[in-house]
């Protein structure tokens, strides 16, 4: 790298002007309604609960949160993002028997307040799934209030063995309402997970090609190279995009499972050459899920580039900007 007075001295000096020129950072995945909720009790939950146990352990926090509590969290998170040069973002919002509609109502108010500085898209988080009647009631309510249909099919697969039915409900709901879909898949970094493949097949079955975005895809790296290549071909058929949130998954617990050597990151280094549109998100910020995450987009990019040995500056800029806008449905 040149060391002349006018030349950039760091990678950041080289990339950030390009991100600004491309319209600014786009954070495609967050949970702003839970941001900045750390406390001694919440940290103890983090230490003692698995991810699946947290789906219910968070109930008390959500029940006790008022609309003003949610509004404050949204506002803090939006200001954090604006300060970094984020110009658009998508955030999931809990709309379920515990949060009811308090979080989304607060989010809509906060979006209006910051609309001159930030484009915000909302997706409904379904920590309770969509199969149980009460959960389904709040899923349907949320589907009318958000911009993007959100989903967590693993919940219904775990509780009822009805993951496939959950996929059908999610995709048919989105198709009826002409909305995009963002789905948490393959989050446990194990070769027993095939959710991205299942989502692709369901996307094609429902005629939703180009309208569905997978989030995380951590377990893809636990499969063989032959399987991964078949999966990428299927993703191209489904025109499926992928959102990577690197910081949220580098703490995945070690396992004794024998699988190909890999880390716990979305395999962006394989997906981009395979023609998959990849975007970037922060996921949870300073909460029970990811207490160490400050919502720093530059940190997310450097973690992704380092963890995947992906040093292609032009592609990283696209992941942070153009691809992000595509993934959340804006020009």
SSE layout:
Layout: H1 11-21, E1 25-27, H2 40-48, H3 51-57, H4 59-64, H5 67-84, E2 86-94, H6 102-113, E3 119-125, H7 133-145, E4 148-151, H8 153-160, H9 163-177, E5 180-185, H10 195-205, E6 212-216, H11 225-238, E7 241-244, H12 268-271, E8 278-280, H13 297-307, H14 313-320, H15 322-327
Parallel strand pairs: 1-2, 2-3, 4-5, 5-6, 6-7, 7-8
Polypeptide structure, described:
This is Amidohydrolase-related domain-containing protein. Residues 46-331 form the Amidohydrolase-related domain. GO terms for molecular function: hydrolase activity, acting on carbon-nitrogen (but not peptide) bonds, in cyclic amidines. The strands form two sheets. This protein has a five-stranded parallel beta sheet with strand order 4-5-6-7-8. A three-stranded parallel beta sheet has the order 1-2-3. The protein has one domain: Metal-dependent hydrolases (TIM Barrel). The protein is built from 15 helices and eight strands. Helix 9 (163-177) packs across helix 10 and helix 10 runs parallel beside helix 11. The model has no long low-confidence stretch (mean pLDDT 94). The protein starts with 10 loop residues before the first helix and ends with a helix. Strand 2, helix 6 and strand 3 (119-125) form a beta-alpha-beta unit. It is α/β, with parallel strands linked by helices and 331 residues long.
In total, the number of strands is: 8
Uncertain ranges: none
CATH topology descriptor: TIM Barrel
The tally of structural domains comes to 1
Our count of helices gives: 15
Principal-axis shape equals globular
Structural class: alpha/beta
- From the alpha-carbon coordinates, what is the Rg to the nearest angstrom? 19 Å
What top-tier CATH class fits best?
A: Alpha Beta
């Amino acid at each position: 790298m040149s060391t002349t007075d006018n030349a950039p001295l760091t990678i950041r000096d080289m990339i950030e002007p390009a991100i600004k020129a491309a319209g600014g950072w786009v954070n495609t995945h967050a949970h702003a309604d839970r941001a900045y909720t750390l406390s001694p009790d919440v940290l103890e939950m983090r230490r003692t609960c698995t991810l699946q146990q947290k789906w219910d352990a968070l109930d008390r926090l959500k029940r006790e949160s008022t609309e003003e509590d949610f509004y404050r969290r949204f506002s803090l998170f939006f200001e954090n993002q604006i300060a970094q040069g984020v110009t658009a973002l998508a955030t999931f919002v809990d709309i379920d028997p515990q949060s009811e509609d308090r979080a989304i109502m607060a989010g809509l108010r906060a979006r209006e307040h910051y609309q001159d500085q930030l484009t915000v898209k909302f997706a409904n988080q379904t920590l309770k799934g969509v199969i149980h009647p009460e959960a389904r009631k709040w899923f349907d309510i949320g589907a009318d209030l958000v911009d993007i249909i959100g989903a967590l099919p693993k919940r219904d697969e775990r509780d009822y063995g009805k993951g496939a039915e959950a996929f059908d409900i999610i995709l048919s709901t989105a198709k009826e309402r002409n909305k995009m879909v963002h789905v948490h898949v393959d989050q446990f970094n194990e070769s027993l997970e095939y959710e991205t493949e299942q989502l692709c097949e369901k996307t094609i079955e429902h005629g939703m090609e180009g309208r569905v975005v997978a989030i995380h895809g951590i377990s893809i790296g636990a499969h063989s190279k032959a399987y991964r290549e078949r999966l990428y071909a299927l993703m191209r058929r489904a025109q499926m995009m992928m959102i990577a949130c690197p910081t949220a998954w580098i703490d995945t617990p070690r396992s004794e499972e024998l699988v190909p050597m890999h880390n716990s990151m979305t395999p962006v280094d394989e997906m981009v050459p395979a023609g998959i549109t990849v975007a970037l998100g922060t996921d949870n910020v300073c909460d029970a899920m990811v207490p160490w995450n400050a919502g720093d987009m530059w940190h997310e990019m450097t973690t992704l580039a380092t963890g995947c040995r992906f040093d292609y500056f032009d592609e990283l800029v696209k992941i942070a900007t153009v691809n992000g806008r595509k993934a959340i449905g804006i020009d």
